[in-house]
Amino acid sequence: MTSTAVSSPQPVRLALSHGAVLRDATPGDAQGIIDCIQALADYEREPDAVENTAAMLTASLFGDEPRVFAHVVEREGRVVGIALWFLSYSTWTGRHGIWLEDLFVYEEERGRGFGKALIASLAAVCVERGYSRMEWTVLDWNAPSIAFYRAIGAEPMDEWTTQRMTGGALAALAAHLGGAAGREGSAEA
């Protein structure tokens, strides 16, 4: 039987080129991961979008019941690349998968295989645990990343679009349940 447990049976630790190491994130990496998240937001033209903090990230990654996970590439004592991910589930295959939320390597560290190693480490988690797939989104103008993803065998889901609900729209939809939220009852469509 294939385990779908979230915790890694074997910690990730792999020596890479240029003295770098790919490994599971530790609590001491939180600020370095936040710095990568901010650099990614800057690159994606959303410099003011990051609300996350090192304390919030530490609680999410290392709290009692983590729901998000991270692999990092460390070089010369600095986190220079990240892969943040969480479990997804396919109702069609009946198996979990990985949703890759963020993959980032600092520009000056690119071309050394760190990004490929990070995403390959997640592919290895999928294979080891019997997960059916790994998915993520990429901005349609991010040609270098799209080319990288095609080169490693990823395929676009051209007929699918990402939907998102936040803020007021999220609250308004939740209010549709009235007082029924969290209690037995019914809500009409």
Question: What is the average per-residue confidence, as pLDDT, rounded to a whole number?
Answer: 91
What is the molecular shape? globular
- Helix/strand class: alpha+beta
* Low-pLDDT residue spans: 1-8
Q: Helical stretch count?
A: 5
Number of domains: 1
**Which fold name corresponds to the CATH topology?**
Aminopeptidase
Please report which band the strand proportion falls in: under 5%, 5-15%, 15-25%, 25-35%, 35-45% or over 45%: 15-25%
State the oligomer: single chain
Secondary-structure blueprint:
Layout (H helix, E strand, L loop, with lengths): L12 E3 L5 E4 L5 H14 L10 H9 L6 E7 L2 E13 L4 E11 L8 H16 L4 E2 L7 H9 L15 H9 L14
Parallel strand pairs: 5-6
Antiparallel strand pairs: 1-2, 2-3, 3-4, 4-5
Helix pairs in contact: 1-2
